[in-house]
Amino acid sequence: MSGPSKRDLRHxxxxxxxxxxxxxxxxxxxxxxxEAAEAIAETVLRFVPDGGRVAVYESLPDEPPTGRLVxxxxxxxxxxxxxxxxDDFSLEWRYAVRGTVGDQGTVTRRQGPPDASERSGWLGVDxxxxxxxxxxxxxTVDRHGTRLGQGGGCYDxxxxxxxxxAPVVTLLHxxxxxxxxxxxxxxxxxxxxxxxxxxxxxxxx
Length: 205
Ligand SMILES: Nc1nc2c(c(=O)[nH]1)N(C=O)[C@@H](CNc1ccc(C(=O)N[C@@H](CCC(=O)O)C(=O)O)cc1)CN2
Ligand SMILES: Nc1ncnc2c1ncn2[C@@H]1O[C@H](COP(=O)(O)OP(=O)(O)OP(=O)(O)O)[C@@H](O)[C@H]1O
Prior knowledge:
The chain has 205 residues and is α/β, with parallel strands linked by helices.
């Protein structure tokens, strides 16, 4: 017998995320998000090699925050790349700029061909091949490392290019890991660990 579909699981996970994000924003007199951003940065920084290149996403308001992580990686001399979504749901990559956070542009497909100046800053759809660590978004992850994302398949496509030696880490709100095994399709790329908004690291593989 088959369990719930990815679509149903995604729907439930989005509702849970909205609740957890409200709770986080209200925590500690409004300092909850900044504390989570610091906790995530602290934990992730521990497993980045000196001077390494790291792929990070630019977080939207309900997502585990990545702004502080990007800031601290840049401060400590790492290279940070962030995704641009192309119209076929593949990901292009560009260097992160200090102080940027995600806006709708981060998750809206890039329509039409880029102009020359835009394209000149792009690093290629295979840019994950040159990264030492990949930090992905995700709605939930199970104990085997199966990840459920927003449903574009963007990260499954992108992760196919990664260096197999580079860990893949998903950021989750505390309480979002899946106790049940998630559906696994052939194209699904497993993740090695997740880090939560309290800075907790869980290795899966
Ligand atoms: N902050 C952040 N950045 C991220 C992701 C993410 O989950 N979080 N992504 C994780 O994968 C990628 C973007 N994922 C996407 C997944 C689906 C659609 C999509 O279906 N877009 C529809 C419009 C949807 C709408 O408007 O509601 C479309 O373009 O037709 C676009 C991007 C890359 N960047
Ligand atoms: N490597 C790939 N090549 C072509 N299509 C793919 C690839 N990976 C995934 N897809 C397609 O993308 C769609 C969404 O996949 P899935 O539901 O697993 O997304 P997701 O992992 O939740 O999203 P995301 O990776 O963007 O976070 C599916 O229709 C799938 O067939």
